[in-house]
Design goal:
The protein is mostly beta strands and about 375 residues long. Helix content is about 10%, strand content about 30%. The strands form 4 sheets. Strands 1, 2, 4, 5, 6, 7, 9 and 10 form an 8-stranded antiparallel β-sheet that branches. Strand 9 and strand 10 (about 180) form a beta hairpin.
């Protein structure tokens, strides 16, 4: 998340002179990450000239004044593993910074990042007046130096949460002759959303960056109501639940929850009986990301050894307001998939649907242990 990030000054940032227009570069995917499986575009450029919000499709995946594209990872465990940020096109490094710690700005206060809103970042000059900027990189990960020439697709750093950031992501901004440009729309299109598009992305990148109005960020089982900080840290998903766990709680964090959306969670026993079937009240606002949970308390001395299925669904109430959202029911096979394979296939199916989704997860009970696949 970033406001006016391009206005801040790097200590090492060199002013880029406006050059005569030349051939427009073709920009590739700026992360080495499978879109829709691990990485997600959570925020786009805001096209609404007033106090409202509109991304390039006239949807609400933006916030007022946002000037870039935010590509995020689910939680900080992926930051620790390392998700490479790539040069979207060949260019020269004209600005870079490193050494800013990775921390949620809500925990430390906006005032503490004044002047370093971009966090650890890189600025590339691609010639002909084209510049890209990459913000919120992981501390200590910037791999380029000022004046260095980089090739398209070369690693310049890793996804992080430095500077003015509330979730782990890279903020990528495009500028042409010092004017901000939406890479999903192009330079010739007017600023308003819904206009004719001439994207800057390559065909391959554009195919991977298909618009998704909503989807799953994180999900899993726990023995108690989850804490948001633990979910962000990637520590909430319990690999096992003891047979004497006080509760069986399923939680899911989604992005792009629209006003009027509801989330429904059903935990279904092997005999087909729903032991939990709960639906939230309609959302009163748009949420960039929202976590909900539900479950049941243990009523006997131990949980019985059996398998439960969980269906979690988020969808709009009014089809007229939800016209871009398509519902899809995903069936979970009862056998034939390894645990990790099951989780991977689930995420593929969920991410491939645009809009409302249904998330099935099986909770396996073996002897005195309960197992939930890591989503």
């Amino acid at each position: 998340m970033l406001r006016g990030v391009l206005a801040f000054a790097f200590v090492l940032l060199v002013a880029v002179a406006v050059r005569p227009a030349s051939a427009q570069p073709v920009f590739g995917l700026p992360v080495a990450c499978e879109m829709g499986i691990v990485c997600t575009v959570q925020n786009y450029i805001d096209h609404d000239p007033g106090p409202g919000v509109a991304d390039y499709t006239c949807g609400d995946l933006a916030y007022n004044g946002h000037d870039g594209t935010d590509i995020r990872v689910p939680n900080m465990t992926f930051v620790a593993r390392g998700v490479p940020v790539l040069a979207a096109a060949a260019g020269t490094v004209v600005g870079r910074r490193d050494g800013v710690r990775d921390v949620n700005v809500r925990e430390i206060g906006v005032e503490t990042v004044a002047g370093t809103e971009c966090g650890n970042g890189v600025v590339l000059d691609h010639g002909g007046g084209w510049v890209t900027q990459y913000c919120h990189l992981r501390q200590g990960s910037v791999q380029v130096r000022g004046g260095q020439t980089v090739a398209a697709g070369e690693v310049i750093g890793l996804v992080g949460m430095s500077g003015h950031a509330e979730f782990p992501h890279v903020h990528v901004a495009f500028r042409y002759q010092e004017r901000n440009v939406d890479p999903f729309v192009g330079i010739a299109a007017p600023a308003l959303c819904g206009a004719e598009r001439r994207p800057l992305w390559s065909a391959e990148a554009l195919a991977q960056l298909g618009y998704r109005a909503t989807g799953v960020l994180n999900a899993g089982f726990a023995s108690a109501p989850p804490e948001s900080a633990q979910i962000m840290a990637g520590q909430q998903q319990e690999p096992t639940l003891a047979a004497d766990a006080p509760a069986m709680v399923f939680w899911v964090e989604v992005f792009g929850m629209a006003k009027g959306d509801r989330t429904r969670v059903r935990i279904v026993a092997p005999d087909g009986r729903a032991v939990v079937d709960a639906t939230t009240e309609p959302s009163t606002q748009h949420w960039a990301s929202r976590m909900t949970y539900n479950g049941l308390r243990r009523s006997a001395a131990r949980w019985p050894a059996r398998t439960h299925r969980v269906l979690a669904r988020c969808s709009g109430l009014d089809p007229r307001e939800d016209r871009r959202r398509h519902r899809r029911l995903v069936q979970v096979p009862r056998q034939g998939l390894a645990r990790r394979g099951l989780a991977l296939r689930l995420l593929r199916l969920i991410r491939s649907s645009r809009g409302s989704f249904i998330l099935p997860v099986r909770l396996r009970c073996r002897a005195s242990r309960l197992y939930s696949p890591p989503c």
